[in-house]
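During the second year of the project, the team shifted from modelling isolated chains to modelling whole assemblies. The rationale, set out in the original proposal, was that interfaces cannot be judged from single-chain predictions alone. As a representative example for this report, we include one of the complexes processed in the last quarter. Its constituent sequences, exactly as entered into the pipeline, are reproduced here:
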Amino acid sequence: MKARKLRFIGGYTALILLLIGLALLNICAGSADIAPSRLISALRDPDSDKVAYNIITGLRLPRTAAAVILGGALAVSGFLLQNFFANPIAGPYILGVSSGAKLVVALLLVYSLAHGFAPNSFAMVAAAFAGAMISMSFILLISAKVRRMSVLIVCGVMIGYICSAVTDFVVNFSDDSNIVNLHNWSMGSFSGIGRSDVITAALIVFPACICAFMLSKPMNAYQLGEQYAANSGVHIKAFRAALILLSSVLSACVTAFAGPVSFVGVAVPHIVKSIFRTARPIYIIPACFLGGAVFCLLCDFITRTVFAPTELSISTVTSVFGAPIVIYILMHRERRAKNE
Amino acid sequence: MSEAVLRAEKLSVGYGKKVIISGVELTAECGKILTIIGPNGAGKSTILKTICRQLEPLGGTVFIGKEKMGELSGNALARTVSVLLTNRVKTEYMRCIDVVEMGRYPYTGSLGILSDEDRAKVRDAMKLVDIEMLADREFDRISDGQRQRVLLAGAICREPEVLILDEPTTFLDVKYKLELMSILKKLASERNTAIILSLHELDLAQRVSDRIICVRGEKLDRTGTPEEIFSGDYISGLYGVSAGSFCESFGTPELERCEGEPEVFVIGGGGSGIDVYRSLQRRGVPFAAGVIHENDIEFPVAHALASKLITEKPFETVTQESFDSALAVMKKCRTVICSVSRFGAANEYCRRLRDEAEQLGILTKELKNER
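Output from the structure prediction step:
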């Protein structure tokens, strides 16, 4: 019991320290390095160091905040989906939810560019949510038919491919100067997210995460199976609908602002669960949020700095870390299933 | 008179729109154990699933106390009726104590944090089911039987008025089967819980139940006390037993007897012959047995397995007639086995049977490799 408590405290402390450290690193480091002392003085007195102040508040702070908020959102979304499908490798990217969101956002962008207006960030989120729900309904249809988790995952990946193909098609045939922009976005990136976007994202992500946290109790019972939860007094239909809605909103929000970001939703919950040695939502949901934020901060830092001045897409980096974890979970599960 | 906590009236159960059993009438009383028996696929689980609201009733009503079950809130129902299911779940990073603690679900607040009282109840339940040593083990890495007991502890610490168990003995070995039965008895008598369970093991059903419900083909075939149910050939009929027979008094099955002219004669009595009968049956040797009193402990086995059986009325001294007919049968046999080691006034003629066999030179002490 004591060891468990220590593990929790240690885990949370480490996550928070990492979050602060990486956030500072992301704000300070870059093509123009800003020492922490300069950061403080610039923030204290904007007039004394205009250049630093503008870089920080205009570019780095929003980008860092976006990585924190959207990374956290992705990890929580993944955790919710894993509980819903009782499948440790379910996640918004793998199940094609992100790609569905991407498709509808791309359609909206192309349409708006052709008609000469720019959709605001809420419209982007709404479009992404619609797309996420379309993919999600396909996944739900499939999951009603198949029980094997690997089959569901393969179907999800296929849905992702279909959506990506249609997106590419749409992008290819809409000739516009902003196509390059769109293409960049469709690969996933935290760059170019403005302050208002971050605020919108925060307004969506934080309430959704709090709602998810409030579902901890029924989620915990649901981990013992649908029937168990029903016998415990969980209203299954409402609960399942809430899980789907929340995870879709969260991943839609990410896709609307940063494009599809791969594997965070699978990798982070897995790492967090194995560090904390529990899957209890009440501990894991906040830890997932922190973990997702840390993971995305780290990956975003790599995209900006490793091959500077060339910037990688965020999914390139998250895949490098995330995909091996998925393979590991699959092999681990397979071995365990054989042992039984 | 104990009060009824769960009552089903004219209940029809089934999946979708297809009714499997109709006209189900059952009453669970406080402190009483109600067992549902019946052949595989008869719908025992379907009834249980319906009376805990996992399945919608297709007709009729289930009452919890005075209220209709359909109108209860999920939480109120969860506090009153606790269910132990046999379907397997895959868990991740869940310790056994976490699973048991989930039993307190209907009592905890909106975040599911346990109070000290909750924890004490969890500890008590784990102690009762004897799984304290499993507390920190992972639920995914213990045996099926252990999992079953962990889930049972969870169901118990919910402190329900009605405990429903769907074939709870499935994964348990004989020690835990017996322990489970004594736990159920304890719950019924000490906590006044009404217990409804389905069982495959008729011997257990006969011993543990206060009332038994028999399900056969679309209806409840019979309801009654174990004594009423386990009488005559009813059980054999219920299950359609044709290969072998069913011993009503012990609640146990016997294999089919080997028909034919007896090759071996067994002088048995007092239970000493049971092993010999079973052994001969396994080898496929038709045999005769005698002289067995009809109230002898080995009578049911001999009756089920011997191709010829010479009996005597209860509590009577073995008579000359019985001796004569036994001797006639014995003389036709190749071998005689006498399993009885002590003779008394009542079976004096059995000693004479043995002496006859000895003189004929066909008596063997032990069962040799017949055939």
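Chain B has two domains: 4-239, 255-364. The longest strand of chain B covers residues 4-15.
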